[in-house]
Amino acid sequence: MIQAHDLPRLLHGDTGRPLTLAQHEATFPIGARPGGLFEELEASGLTGRGGAAFPTARKVRLLREQRNHHKFVVVNAMEGEPGAHKDQSLLSANPHLVLDGAEYLAAMIGAKNIAVAVARDNPSVVNHVTRALHERERRHDRGAKFELHTPPWRFVAGEESALVHWLDDNESLPQYRPQRPTILRIGHGPVLVDNAETCANVGLIGRYGAAWFRAHGTEQSPGTTLVSVTGAVERPTVAEVPLGTTLREILALADADPNPLALVMGGYGGSWLDGRHLDLPYANEALAPYGVSVGAGIIVVLSRAGCGVVETHRVVRWMANESARQCGPCAFGLPALAEDLGHLAHATRDAAAAYQRLVERAGVIEGRGACRHPDGVVRFVRSALAVFAADFEGHRHGAACAGAQSRRHFAAVPTLEREDELIWE
Amino acid sequence: MGMRRRTGGFVLAVNPIQCDGFGHCTELAPDLVRLDEWGYPIIDKTPVALSNLSALESARLAVRGCPRQALRIERVSDLPEGPAHRT
Ligand SMILES: Cc1cc2nc3c(=O)[nH]c(=O)nc-3n(C[C@H](O)[C@H](O)[C@H](O)COP(=O)(O)O)c2cc1C
Ligand code: SF4
Ligand code: SF4
To answer: Domains of chain B by range and CATH?
Structure first.
């Protein structure tokens, strides 16, 4: 049996050769959970691993309070961030742990149905999940019924209201939610959406309890977490680390550039962090003063051979293209930000004016979309303006830095094959 | 329209998915709505006191006049203390 201090917990097994149900039950035998399921979840202090780090027990409580016979649990394994590979690794190593967690969540809120959402563009993960669901079907029936859904991959398709919209009506478009927290619905049934990694942790807490779970991590950020490290690294890596591990140690796991210019933290809806801060613990309470967060468990390493202005432009251009184009400030505002950044990245004659526009537009766009996609882009741009202040200064006066001239790129950005099309229409 | 309406505040909220960006609302409620460079309304999220009758009236006009029914008046029960909010 896996002990509280053992590592890895979540990535136990071999990525690409998922544990079978029998192997899974031998590795993670039903243990002696000290208290009730919900009480243990509350005491565990688990926070969501999909980006917002919201306490999972609070979401569960909200859904428990709903009187409805048609509740759903949705396992969000859409993994929309290009720098993220963690849900993929998790489901390729240990799909049953995720499914166990979803069953515990369903039991806690009284849901009869569980939808597992994996992007169809990732067929190997779809296969692993399909096989795991087959194995469980043959076993017995423990209540909630599983269904696999495979929406097309888009950045915004993993946003919870867009995902629920897809499950409800086959459209990956976010919904307007004036009141928060909102309870999303499939038909009339209230929905609990949790990230796949969050579910896997619930699977562990449901077996071994809160104290076991808290053997790793910090007081405020308990447990372990999956981090996808890419960019200026020898080996792109998904690592499982206790929250509170220093950034330097995490980078070492991927043989990353030990003296980077900066890091993207949390994802493309996250923020840049100056490469000097490698001794910070990887936990939100320590990162918050620097304006960054664990986010979706993504670290992209930017080497000093690259240019922060150029990387920011590449990312924002792609993110602008990923707007669902339902809301004016997002549909028009994000491409405008990308255009301003283009002038700066190439240090054109318009760069100084573009800089002014960029700063003003960032302020105007924030908080005006139906979902938080534009806010993520604004946050990313603002952090770039702060972290790469000196480089922006040079670029806006027509002097692109050496890194920009090297034309070396570090942040993975999918190609914009359909750049000029309104892909959502 | 009793007296109890006079405490607390409101914000004019726009559903950005419904909004078509033709900007009628800024003509109907120029004190509450300005437009961004693409023609979409920018509305301050700080609550306005309900006792500010002229602001409330223009908010109502904007809500009624919006061709896409994208606007709503949201009541905020507790107006934050202090000079930060607009009256
Ligand atoms: C633009 C956008 C994209 C998102 N994409 C994902 C995603 O791909 N996977 C995911 O788990 N959460 C994603 N989220 C977060 C979800 O909306 C939601 O908060 C999360 O799935 C909740 O699970 P958690 O509480 O377990 O973190 C996204 C959010 C936004 C605003
Ligand atoms: S804010 Fe952008 S991504 Fe979100 S719903 Fe509106 S247009 Fe789509
Ligand atoms: S009147 Fe309505 S649809 Fe027109 S810009 Fe204003 S909010 Fe949008």
So the answer is: 9-78 (3.30.70.20)
- Residue A207, SS3? helix
The answer to whether the CB atoms of A329 and B18 lie below 8 A apart is no
Residue in B13, B15, B36 nearest the CB of A329: B36
In this complex, is the C-beta atom of A176 within 8 Å of any C-beta atom belonging to chain B?
Answer: yes
Task: Annotate A136-166 with DSSP letters as a single string.
Answer: HHHH---SSEEEEE-PPP-SGGGSHHHHHHH
Is residue A62 over pLDDT 80? yes
Please give the Cα distance from A111 to A70 (Å, whole number). Answer: 7
Q: Work out the percent of chain B whose per-residue pLDDT is above 90.
A: 74
User: Between β-strands A224-231 and A298-302, what pairing exists: parallel, antiparallel or unpaired?
Assistant: parallel
Q: Which ligand is nearest to the CA of B40?
A: 3
pLDDT at B84: 43
Give the pLDDT score at B37: 97
pTM for this prediction: 0.94
pLDDT at A17 over 60: yes
**Ligand 2 centroid, distance to B23 Cα (angstroms):** 19
Beta bridge partners, A116, equal: A75, A148
On the question of pLDDT at A141 being above 80, the answer is no
SS3 for A44-90 is: HCCECCCCCCCEHHHHHHHHHCCCCCCCEEEEEECCCCCCCCHHHHH
| pLDDT (average), residues A397-418 | 85
How many CB pairs below 8 Å do chains A and B form together?
A: 43
Distances (CA, A) of A98 to A52, A107, A116, A182: 19, 14, 10, 25
Q: Which of B36, B72, B73 to mutate to test the interface with A (most CBs of A within 10 A)?
A: B36
Q: How many residues does chain A have?
A: 425
Q: Would you place residue B80 in the very low, low, confident or very high pLDDT band (cuts 50, 70, 90)?
A: low
| pLDDT level of residue B87 (50, 70, 90 thresholds) | very low
Query: Tokens standing for B75?
Result: 């009541």
DSSP B5: G
> What is the rounded CA–CA span in Å between residue A336 and residue A319?
12
Minimal Cα distance from A329: which residue of B? B40
Domains and CATH numbers, chain A: 21-213 (3.40.50.11540), 224-302 (3.10.20.600), 308-421 (1.20.1440.230)
Q: Is the CB of B30 under 6 A from ligand 3?
A: no
Question: Which pLDDT does position A16 carry in this prediction?
Answer: 76
Q: How far apart are CA B70 and CA A178, in angstroms?
A: 12
Which has more confidence, A274 or B78? Answer: A274
Residue B33 belongs to what H/E stretch? Answer: strand B33-35
Tens digit of each residue's pLDDT (9 = 90 or more) over A157-183: 999 999 999 999 999 999 999 887 889
Supply the residue whose CA is at minimum distance from atom 31 of ligand 1: A372
